Amino acid sequence: MKSSDFFHSLEVDKVFSDLDSSPNGISKKDADERLNRFGENIIENYERSKLSIFLKQFMSPVIYVLIFAAILAFFIGDTNDFLIIIGIVIINSLLGFWQESKAESSLKALKKLTEQRAFVFRNGEVIEIPSSKIVPGDVLMLSEGNVISADLRLYDTKGMLIDESTITGESIPVEKDGKVILPEKTLPYDLKNMALSGTVVVRGSGKGIVVKTGKNTYLASIAEKVKEKSPESPLTKAIGQFSKKYIVLLFIILFTVGSFGLYGGIDIPTMLYILVALMVSAIPEGLPIVITLVLAVGALELNKNYVLVRHLPSVETLGSATVIASDKTGTITTGKIAVSEVFPEEFDDIEVISALANESDGIHGDHMDLALVSWLGIEKYHKIRKNNPTLEIFPFDTKSRMMGSLNNVINGQKLFIKGSYEFLKEKSTNKSFKEFDQAHDKMSGNGLRVLAFGVGEGDIKNPSTWKIEIKSLIGFSDPPKEGVKGAVSTAKSAGIRVIMITGDNSLTAKKIATEVGIYSEGDGLLSGVDIEKLDDEELKDALKGVSVVSRALPEHKYRIVKALQNSGEIVAVTGDGVNDVPALKVADLGISMGEGTEAAKSVSKMVLVDNNLSLIVKAIKQGRLITENIRKVIYYLISANMGQIVLISLSIIMGLSLPLFPVQILWINMVTDGVQDKTFPFIKEESNLMKRNPLRPENRVFDKVQIYRIFYAAVSLGLINLALYFHLLNINYPYMEIVTILFTSMVVSIWFNGIQAQKEHEPFFKNIKRSITINPYIWVGVLIGIVLQLLAIYVFSDLFKTVPLDILDFSYVLITSVLFFITLEVRKWAEYLYNKKNNPIL
């Protein structure tokens, strides 16, 4: 038995010969031998072990440091911190494990597409077998409704239409003809004499020779790409980069502080305890759970807008997206064929012809027939058919490209016909075609699918006898969804590029893309044929400036996503079919449709309940808000923690007594970071989120501006409180009172830092009302913090080594805290005025 990748280019007899088969099929003995040789007709499942998925969750620099800090906390007897940190690590890991385990179901969903029953010829008899037992050389009988379970070379087709949307993404069923011979390099969406695994027969019948099964099918080649690892989210990348830099900086500081402390006479156990306390304080162990809270709050908000989040980090990825690669059908357009244009407009009888030359029952039927019903209105459709009873129907014939209906009308019987304009024209009795030709060319040029309608006479059973008078032309389209045009405009103003990828032809694609604002004069256009000629590097260059890709295959969409990523883009891609699975899997953010296949949903990170591009743009806005809030909480946590290190480090270096006891350092971490940071998920939009270009992943949380702001706040916090320390020493305050004042001053100052952190782009006093209301929960956090701090001073003084403070003592606390607040406000005003001058959007 010979093998070939080009059975579509061979005569049927040659295919039978190469596969050692015949129209009577193969013998049972041959079938068993081939089953052993080729294996079962299934897509092999690929699964990682549950243990490997779970262990992967611990492979993160942040997790390493948290575990190290937990171990240190345990050895110095700080059981509470040990349990809190370990709890956070376990919860975070379990969430990641659950999400990745769900994603492993993708290949199982693909496999289900081939789990069918099939009718095959064996020893000249038709028998029913499980589709998993189909082998190359088998002859399959196909009829309406059959799901095709292997790749077939068709022959003896009778009016066969196949829905290939799961493979090509094209919305309209494809006509098949087993007699045609095609060039070797014909692409899958033009394989008129082939039926591919995973597609569905929607009309007609036929027979096909099985040429490929199991892992050799075109569907399996899609499944193979599902094994590729999904990229890390921008947030994960950014946190990873930030963690490495922060850990290096932290160890340098702690080593320096430890060296000076030991040199200054602090004993090793005390110095070790101080360093561990500083490390636990400096490491934002609450960051993973705060980020999870921010993402969860964002996911709930998205859920209100019919966006379901399957993978929590993807919520933030939305805010990072630089490219939206969107399907046309069902996302940009309605996914339903509709009447778009009628010629001539004033011709009344077209309603009668379109109702009678129609094979639907008003609810079920061909896309075109149902579009005509919708255009007429269901009541009018049934009324016309009732008044003109159908005597006989000639179903749509792929050879004559026409269908006809013989009906009783007022003056007797009449034949009502619809079909291809070119074929009706050959049998037409019209005296002139000039106007119809012009109308047809105009509609076709606008990407519409055109049908001709007419009345005639002849034998209903024999189209060759028909004589037709063409009365009208109707153009059909898949119209854009409401709100998409505005969404595209918003996306572009936010610096996000929108590319439409479709299986439809270039005329239709360009027309729709122009209507919704995706395509503008001068933009590039690519087709699947073009992509086939390009290697990956050439494709990367070719995509620059492209806004429409037509006649795209699954591998094309996959390659487009990879090429865009190699250009540094963060790609959000939409899809609903099996054909979209590879692209959804490798995209930074795969978004499937609520009405899509389970295979698409299983690899996507988000699901749109209402399939609409405008929802994606709204979700991007929410994603950007989430990104800003994560950035703000990181600034708050790191600047507060580093401020303590500045105070303690400088005190040790200068030979002063410790300004804070280790237990107080840990308490500051709890009463500030542990309370206020939990309110950051609820910060509202600050301003102009969709007027800024998206930040690069490496700049999400730790860019130069963020570093500068953290450094400014930390140094200001440390120096102001160090100055207070010197002042209190100079006026001979008791040491324990000094420590308690500094302890409280640091706490209150960090609260003020948290209040300032609610707004990144505007000073607090720029809009006081907005500053106060942007996050009401921050004040709840402050109130809880006040209660806890008073308890630490007046109730648990022995535990926290504090003494009671009087009004004068609190005045020092207030002065330093307000001074720190003003210092931050000065910095923000300087930035605001500079940005307003140089970048009015901000």
Automatic annotation (TrEMBL):
Domain Cation-transporting P-type ATPase N-terminal span(s) in chain numbering: 6-78
Enzyme Commission (EC) number: 7.2.2.8
The record's subcellular locations are: Endomembrane system
Q: Where does the chain cross the membrane?
A: 58-76, 82-98, 246-266, 272-300, 633-658, 710-729, 735-755, 776-795, 807-826
Q: Name one Pfam family in it.
A: Cation_ATPase_N
Q: Which Gene3D superfamilies match?
A: Calcium-transporting ATPase, cytoplasmic domain N, Calcium-transporting ATPase, cytoplasmic transduction domain A, Calcium-transporting ATPase, transmembrane domain, HAD superfamily/HAD-like
Q: Which UniProt keywords apply?
A: ATP-binding, Copper, Copper transport, Hydrolase, Ion transport, Membrane, Metal-binding, Nucleotide-binding, Translocase, Transmembrane, Transmembrane helix, Transport
Q: Name one GO molecular function term.
A: ATP hydrolysis activity
Record InterPro entries: ATPase_P-typ_cation-transptr_C (IPR006068), ATPase_P-typ_cation-transptr_N (IPR004014), ATPase_P-typ_cyto_dom_N (IPR023299), ATPase_P-typ_P_site (IPR018303), ATPase_P-typ_TM_dom_sf (IPR023298), ATPase_P-typ_transduc_dom_A_sf (IPR008250), ATPase_P-type_domA (IPR059000), HAD-like_sf (IPR036412)
Its membrane topology: Multi-pass membrane protein
Primary location class: membrane
Q: What class of enzyme is it?
A: translocase
List the record's Gene Ontology CC terms alphabetically: endomembrane system; membrane
Q: What PANTHER family does its record include?
A: CALCIUM-TRANSPORTING ATPASE (PTHR42861)
Q: What is this protein called?
A: P-type Cu(+) transporter
